[in-house]
Amino acid sequence: MAQPQQSAGAEAEQPPLRVGMVGYAFMGAAHSQGWRTVGRVFDLPRRPVLAAVCGRDAAAVRAAADRHGWAAAETDWRALIARDDVDLVDICTPGDSHAEIAVAALAAGKHVLCEKPLANTVEEAEAMVRAAEEARERGQLAMVGFNYRRVPATALARRMVAEGRLGRLRHVRVTYLQDWLVDPEFPLTWRLRKEHAGSGSLGDLGAHIVDLAQYVAGEQLSGVSALTETFVRERPLAEAVKGLSAAATGGTGQVTVDDAALFTARFPSGALASFEATRYATGRKNALRLELNGERGSLAFDLERLNELSYHDGTESPAHAGFRRILVTEPEHPYLDAWWPPGHGLGYEHTFVHQARDLVHAIAEGRQPDPSFADGLQVQRVLAAVEESAEKNSVYTPIAV
Length: 401
Ligand SMILES: NC(=O)c1ccc[n+]([C@@H]2O[C@H](COP(=O)([O-])OP(=O)(O)OC[C@H]3O[C@@H](n4cnc5c(N)ncnc54)[C@H](O)[C@@H]3O)[C@@H](O)[C@H]2O)c1
Hints:
The chain has 401 residues and is of the alpha/beta class. It contains ten helices and 17 strands.
């Protein structure tokens, strides 16, 4: 992980970074936590200011602004990106609006943070990359929000792989299991319609695990063989939506995305990978699990125990070798020098604090933040290859470069 150049007392050397956020529900609340907290924990070269938040309902967005600490409220994202007191636009809306908002915000001279998946299609993601490359020449930077890279244990896993502790990788095994769709009466929210979400479990959970697997392994997938399925094809129409929950109205509608996506894949190094993304894993709430097996050792991570990393050092004598638990709370571990004493663990929301911290440093130092829009496009190409393979009876499908 690129370490920012920390300089104690550097705060206020540069002007504040004024943030305007679009969308204030699940991710909007999480990003608000990140922007509010980051400057209180980390030394930053620019101080984030929660300048304005945007929704579509005037009363609801004003209430969200007050709850989450935003100074102003807007009801049209075009007005938000036109504001002189906004330097960075943070996009926390469903995928159908990512491309339009990001391209317009970059054209308006703003930096951009965009939630994952970068877009709903490869074509939209390509347009976003073109806009980001042009903007970069003007000094504006763009990043996509794959926050699971910012769990200290996953960042440590990447560091250990890069140090060669696992040797040549043979297997990368990743699953992302949730269960909020098990009930066939669960309503038809935007996540279940292709025109809003692009795809289902694939773009939602699969995008995360493709990015995380590539980030930890340090290389990009070259091809996939896939199966997808939609188990429940018709659901009650949705009324109020909150986070992953929703209330039903009368009538039903079609589910137009996948419920589950399973795929195997190859890395150019020869390592094999397997992925499973589903919202039907009864009893599993947010079980993102990653295991890597190399010639010299193995690593295993489970998001439901996110302060821990399991490590097997295969070079030790078999007499006493075995998986051991690294409690990832030491100041030597990624991000942890600014937090609590060892053993006082972190949680889900801290990934958004770390995301804000990394982005602020990159902008202040004028360097490209990771993951870039180009990285987001590459993940989109993997998702497209998965869909193509699944449509063709799982035929092995190379990832477009
Ligand atoms: N990083 C993660 O762990 C993670 C988790 C969940 C969702 N996401 C991603 O975050 C994005 C948003 O998901 P969510 O769960 O927050 O959805 P959500 O339904 O909870 O919230 C969406 C928000 O966008 C607003 N919105 C929609 N269209 C708008 C428009 N045209 N103008 C202004 N506001 C608009 C809605 O009013 C709402 O506030 C998606 O891309 C999703 O894939 C990421």
